[in-house]
């Protein structure tokens, strides 16, 4: 079974001591493609370095809403420069997080809109984090409809956000949360068209059952894929192949056989 982890953070310090071993375990578990996601330009530089040393790993460049207080024209210029690297396949992760509010909401909006504009200008997809910010995220999606294609990563929003994203041609990605006993959004999982569905670990966060509470890593992606297939009533091997193809299309990459 061939898998594609569409969103993880290999540059995170949690992998500092065993990054190569983590990547090896992922490959042994059938993961044949990975996109390591950046939270700020410094993180993006490390993500690019990692991607440049592995033919089955790609990177993004962006500013996470938690870091939006650092946004400036100079920061955006750094992201634009990093986006020219061959390994960079998307802008992000960016978006809005009104749950933690680590950055003022006005600054989150400014950074998000600037990165949407950058993605449109560079003709790159965008990776979006949205938490407790459905209405504002919907407004931004609609404002850039037809100009930017994005993914609502680690989807935890409501039906309105899901429908707005799908109407704009966006993709939706699900993480280990779908394996949790109290997961209550199975109906939304079933609403996503087959050609817009992605799967991710969001490593090192959100480890799936049966590893919940421990450090997550890409070798555990199969657990999430199995849960998705069970929720949707589809064959797990078909789900793996489907989400692999979708990730390749979204990021415009071609992993080696």
Overview of this structure, please?
By secondary structure, this protein is α/β, with parallel strands linked by helices. The protein has one domain: Metal-dependent hydrolases (TIM Barrel, Alpha-Beta Barrel). The protein is built from 9 helices and 8 strands. The chain has an 8-stranded parallel sheet, with helices on both faces. Helix 2 packs parallel to helix 3, helix 5 packs parallel to helix 6 and helix 8 packs across helix 9.
Widest β-sheet, arrangement of strands: 1-2-3-4-5-6-7-8
**Low-pLDDT segments:** none
In the CATH hierarchy, the architecture is: Alpha-Beta Barrel
Task: Tell me the CATH topology.
Answer: TIM Barrel
CATH class: Alpha Beta
The biggest beta sheet is recorded as: 8 strands, parallel
Report the C-alpha radius of gyration, rounded.
Answer: 17 Å
Q: Provide mean pLDDT, rounded.
A: 97
Q: How many helices?
A: 9
What percentage of amino acids are in beta strands? 15-25%
